[in-house]
Design brief:
two-stranded antiparallel sheet; six-stranded antiparallel beta sheet; about 270 residues; single chain
């Protein structure tokens, strides 16, 4: 379709901005996305005109602009899961003192779209927009455990990079973990994302029983102990069930008894 290439290139430019590289000069950005410098400058000029990027005249570099903040806020408000999950997140954070989050699966990563900080100073706040590998997070494992085999296979076909010494980096143990998650109704990430950080997550299911998001409680290992995790898991699971009910999900024993993860093997990925 006409214009598709320009759109894809503009998106590639925007996605090049990240926490590790919030500002780019034209030449460096052109090299990073493997485009001609003139093309990159033209696209940046167009993005600047709608405030999706902003140029710093002192350094002649570009950053993401306020237009994206406004657009992202509208996208958040348009997501029904966010509106329905907010009261449950607030209740979870108030009850436990830990940070509650709502996250979506995007290209093999979990993206935080809402967060209620806990009362504790070290409650594990990660900030809206943060992205983490799904296999190393409680929310990611909660969603992966409820994906159909073909979709799960695509996500698990990528390499698992160790983020800590506790990160699951082999397929077989992860598949076994997902089977446990599906049976328990909640997932635990025990220092797999960051040493000293624990999180418990559960999926949000739509009317068709598909996982569209997940919620979690996260905090320090000293507070979210092995003894406390089951109780926290039940709280998160119950909150997720209430949100799922509002999203139209009705438990079906014939389909819920199927453990998708049992049919995933190293050969199918």
């Amino acid at each position: 379709m006409a214009g598709t290439q320009s759109i894809r290139r503009a998106v590639a430019l925007l996605e090049a901005f990240g926490d590790d590289r919030p500002a780019w000069g034209v030449s460096d950005l052109a090299e990073a996305v493997e485009l001609n410098r003139t093309t990159v400058y033209r696209l940046l000029t167009a993005l600047e005109s709608v405030e999706y990027v902003a140029r710093d005249p002192a350094t002649d570099t570009y950053r993401l602009g306020s237009g994206l903040i406004a657009l992202g806020a509208r996208a958040q408000r348009a997501n029904p899961a966010r509106e329905l999950a907010r009261p449950e997140l607030e209740a979870l954070a108030a009850t436990t003192g830990e940070t509650a989050t709502l996250e979506l699966l995007s290209d093999g990563e979990m993206v935080i779209i809402d967060e209620i900080p806990g009362a504790h100073v070290t409650s594990g706040s990660q900030h809206i927009g943060s992205r983490w590998p799904a296999y190393a997070t409680s929310t990611g494992k909660a969603i992966l455990a409820h994906l159909p085999p073909d979709e799960l296979g695509r996500v698990l076909s990528r390499p698992f990079l160790p983020l800590t010494t506790h990160t699951i980096t082999d397929l077989a143990p992860l598949v076994a973990c997902l089977a446990d998650v599906r049976r328990a109704g909640y997932a635990v990430a025990a220092e797999e994302l960051e040493l000293g950080f624990m999180a418990v997550g559960a999926p949000l299911l739509d009317a068709a029983g598909r996982p569209i998001a997940a919620i979690s409680l996260g905090g320090t290992r000293t507070r979210l102990t092995d003894e406390r995790v089951p109780a926290v898991g039940r709280l998160v699971r119950a909150a997720a069930a209430r949100i799922s009910h509002q999203l139209g999900y009705r438990r079906n024993l014939s389909t819920d008894s199927t453990d998708y993860t049992d049919s995933i093997s190293e050969e199918s990925v």
